[in-house]
Amino acid sequence: QVQLVESGGGLVQSGGSLRLSCAASGSIFGMNVMAWYRQYPGKERESVATSSSGGSTFYADSVKGRFTISRGNVRNMVYLQMNNLKATDTGVYYCYADQDVNHYWGKGTQVTVSS
Question: Where are the alpha helices (H) located in 6-115, listed in sequence order?
C-alpha cells in the first residue's frame, strides 16, 4: 500500500506562483508514474503533468511553459511548480502514482487563483 499526501495549495493572485508537493509513504519501491491531476467542480479529473520513472514528462497543453513536474532526490517526492497562474488553473489538485498494477491517489489540495 502507498499513501500520498499533497501540500502547498492555497490562494494566489493571477500571475503568481505556487509549488505543490506530494509525499509518498508505505511500500514505495517500484513506483513508475507519478503525476498531478486537477478537477474543477462538476468536471472530470484531468491530467496536468506526468513524470515516469525513466525521466519522461508530459504536460497538458494548457499548462505547457508554465508548470514543471519534478521528482525529489528522495524517490518518494513529486513536485509541481506552477508559474504565471491563471484563474482557469483553479481547482483541486491530486497527486497520483502507480506501482505495477496498483493505482494510488492523494486526497487533493485546493488551488484558487483570483483574477
Answer: none
| 80/75 Cα distance (integer angstroms) | 15
User: CA geometry: angle at 85 spanning 82 and 88, to 5°?
Assistant: 120
| Three-class secondary structure of residue 62 per DSSP | helix
What is the rounded CA–CA span in Å between residue 69 and residue 55?
10
Nearest to 35 by CA among 98, 83, 113, 99: 98
List the one residue out of 83, 102, 89, 103 whose CA is nearest residue 38.
Answer: 89
Q: Which amino acid is at 89?
A: D
52-108 per-position pLDDT tens digit: 988 899 999 999 999 999 998 676 889 999 999 999 999 999 999 998 889 999 999
